[in-house]
Sequence to fold (567 residues):
Amino acid sequence: MKQLIECVPNFSEGNNMDIIHRITDEIKTVEGVSLIDVDPGKATNRTVVTMVGEPEAVCEAAFRCVKKAAELIDMKHHTGAHPRFGATDVCPLVPVSNITMEETVVYARQLAERIGSELNIPVYCYENAAFEDKRRNLASCRSGEYEALSQRLGSEEWHPDFGPKEWNEWTSKTGATAVGARNFLVAYNVNLNTTSTRRANAIAFDVRERGRVLREGNPLTGKIVKDEKGNKVYTPGTLKSVKAIGWFIPEFGIAQISMNLTDISITSMHEAFEEVDKKARERGIRVTGSEIVGVLPLKAMLDAGKYFLRKQHRSTGISDQEIVKIAVKSLGLDELYPFDPDKKIIEYILEKEHNTAKKLIDMNLTEFCHETASESPAPGGGSISAYMGALGSALATMVANLSSHKRGWDERWEEFSNWAEKGKFYHDELLKMVDEDTNAFNKIMDAFTLPKKTDEEKAARKQAIQEATKFAIEVPFKTMQLCYECMDVCNAMVDCGNPNSVTDAGVGALAARSGVKGAFLNVKINAKDLEDKEFVQKILAEGAEIERQAEILEAEIQKKVLAKIEE
Fold:
């Protein structure tokens, strides 16, 4: 599988869209890199860009962007609300899939060295790419911002890791760049019903991990406390892995708490929102909404939506789209401008960009029926079996969701929510198998079109056919397993779910059992052409046992359904 990394360069220009477009156009010149977000900020005079792709391609695209930004941006004239010290202020690399942090660090340092040597831009390596612990923190590398660079570049302690150490006409124009390797960072701002930057900063100091400077006596005017080395002593804030400052946004006429959530597995977006809301209320201020700068992973939105659903004692076993809607409304993400999940959630962006062909599961019911009835051999029985299983699991999930808010059953909401989540898992997985079965069929057809003139070509073609055939057996076998396992939810909903919906759970069991039997037919017919007889014997034996167990369980479920109808 391909290695993927994300790169999130921040450029010190947020108003001139011509400059921004000329910089981001460089990304489009590199094959294999997806430009998934460009987020300019007028008040900050800063644009956050997000790209994803294979490591070498992303590093090339990043280098070209840094080069173009150095040509177009003059830091001598830059002002903005956000801390900065260079035309390309920061350029972090983030591991996304099939790549370790250690590997990402290597790419980050290679990129930093290239920027320093080929572009003559001072570069500091930070976070996991830092060569010294004191340089891990971006704020330490950027201390004093652009205005302090003339003294820091040539200093023994804070000279750059790569590039020139002299303050001259070129470096005064480009400033410095921080290149790092870090975990996924969510840039998240919380809106306040105040215009006071001082009050917003006070809340930021309350929550950020670093906290606020400790003072003797009066916390606002007292003498600053220092340790034995003369360093300021801080009182920690309430949120780990959170950096925060307060600022005023003239564009919207409000103050915000601007946060970087540097590890959302430690402090999630909704936890940060709730804590800021708590600290704001203690100061007589109200949170009115929030915004996400750049993009974020789907999990962050699902975690937030489920958190607020649980607070309401509502089932979390609903579609991802509905959970995302709950998160958007609960966090007020559409207060300043519309929140479009397709443009803000990284998985949705990549799926939309790379899956241009229409999927079977994206068709409406009529289209799917007509496509099945057409002269094309796919979708066939395997896809239909998967879809029957998906519908069976969906019916059981529906019963769980209805039961979770049945009058008089309020105390059982979590029990049924858990069942609904389980059912949702199965119908989501089975929906994937609808298209996967057609993909398996297409793999076999593609293998048969391979050339077969030479002995080498014949051998390669035969191997490809066998591999595709094995895949075409494994796909319906997985469908069998999922269909059988989802019957557990059907069974539970017959036993303890809303009695008014017992027949829905019964129909779900019928559909799931049919999915098992239909998928097994596909396993059998494809197994005929596979030469690996040991594999065939094993999978047919396992399939027969799944089919037998499904028939037994379905009969038990129907017996209980009929008994409940007659009560």
About this structure: The chain has three domains: 4-181, 186-351, 357-565. The chain has a mean pLDDT of 94. The radius of gyration is 29 Å.
